[in-house]
Amino acid sequence: MTISVLASGAQSLAAAPCRVAADPELWFAEAPNDVEFAKSLCQDCPVRTRCLEGALERREPWGVWGGELFLQGVVIPRKRPRGRPRKNQNDEGVAA
User: Residue 38: which H helix or E strand, with range?
Assistant: First the structure.
């Protein structure tokens, strides 16, 4: 989060999931399930909108910001698992 987010509403920032989560690495996780969990924690965050706006403005290179996943400064819908998909796997990652 940027200084602008920190400066505006320190009280609400203290309740932000990224500040109270046990593992700060969760917001930069490699596993798709962990990324989705981090995004879900952001849904009720009091500074979610400001966090997302700041991340878009800064073109954050990676991580979960404001409930969205960033990669190379762009919001992407979901993180794909590492490696090649199986030949008999559909778009949802389920074996056909």
Answer: helix 32-42
